[in-house]
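Dear colleague,

Thank you for sharing your sequence with our group. We've completed the structure prediction you requested, and as agreed, I am returning the results in plain text so they can be pasted directly into your records. Please verify that the sequence below matches your submission; if there's any discrepancy, let me know and we will rerun it promptly.
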Amino acid sequence: MKKVTHMHSQASAGSTFMAFRRTLAVASLAFTAACATTSQVKPTSVASAAPAPVEQAPAPAPVPETKKERDAREIFAQAVAAFHAGDYVKAEEGFREVVAKAPQSLNAQFNLGVIAERQGRSADAQAAYEKVRFLEPGHVPTLLNLGRIYRTQEKYEEAISLYEAGLKVKGREHEPSLLNNLTLAYRLAGKYELAEATARRVLARHPDDAEAYKNLALVYYDQGKYRLAELVLANARKLDEKDPGIYNNLGMVYLKLEDRARALTQFQKAVSLDERFASGYVNLGAMALAWRDYAGAERSFSKAVELEPGSHEAWLYYAYALDGQKGRDAKKGLAAGEAFEKVLSLRAEYPEAVCGAGWAYAVERAGWDKAEGFLQRCKDLSSTSAQDKQMIDAKIQGIAAMRKSGQPEPAPEEKAPNPAAVGGSGSMLDKVSDDAAPQEGAPAEGATAPAAEGGPATEPPAETPRAE
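Please find the predicted structure tokens below.
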């Protein structure tokens, strides 16, 4: 995800999580870019045990189905049904059984990656997709999802190489979804000329491709050409009035133009069109944090982490929303500490989460043991200022004294937010939603290959950012 600026979230007195807590603050807005991979991945309902063809070919003569093949097909169908019912454990068991019976099954292996992504297990998802790619280098849905994982890891050059390799596969030279994702990767890598040229390459063949317009708008957005980005997004909206990513990205543009009321309307429109559009919730949460509406921010970010459990940023800002309420409800502080720990499970030793957990757990006796450990780790960070180290020492000593006396921890006092947090151009959350790839949909049962449906990932994103 590409962050342009950040919002400031309120800190409690005595709970400055280092200098970052004064300057960082809330969530980056998620921009939904045109074509990245979706965060709303779905399994493909394909039971074929053979690799899916890269291009259309004459249908082979029907071959009698063996009992083993029938069993695999039935198990596959049951696993798809379990996935749609939200039973990922049962679905994963089913797809693994299919792979055991039919090791060449692209679709079952791909769906294992999809499930892993839904559960926030990025490493497992990447491994599953790599297996599919080994079996079929030109499997477009796999290239899209694997490329999205690389982008979330900020491995932009790897994503670029992946898409470029996919475009070299015979029959895929002009594949719009790969070109759109390549545009996005170029943009994230700061290669704006290549990004613009690639987007125009798509539009030259497909002038009605809304995703290409979205990506082109993000290229202009990143270069500060906000009015031009608005114009291009207006063209995209004419082509697809139901795409939540377009409204999400318009909201980002309006924030830069200091029209926060219009921005809010666009983000609300985005989630009204797709209740699973994570980037819209990230941006709504970021705006709520800027206005110190911590309860509203909590609602938005809780939805974002539900949709994107593997996003450390979504968890970080969810933690901020909870932390902002600990002065009135100490249990929110403990919940914030747990959310900061979730960030650390996704990104080890992330400074904001280490220090945030320490101050959050310090709010109540039940969290003091953890607070002392995290605060000491925060103090040992090279990025922790001398002033913050003094505050940490004072807090640890205070906890020790209260332990000894049996006194409860006094409720933290609230501070006014940093004025820049609610300011205009560039001063507030800016998470470009970079998930702009077409979603991997669930085609009809018995289809011969997974189909990539249109629709930005929310990524886009949150960047998606998550430009999803």
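Summary note from our side: The longest helix spans residues 386-405.

Kind regards,
the structure core
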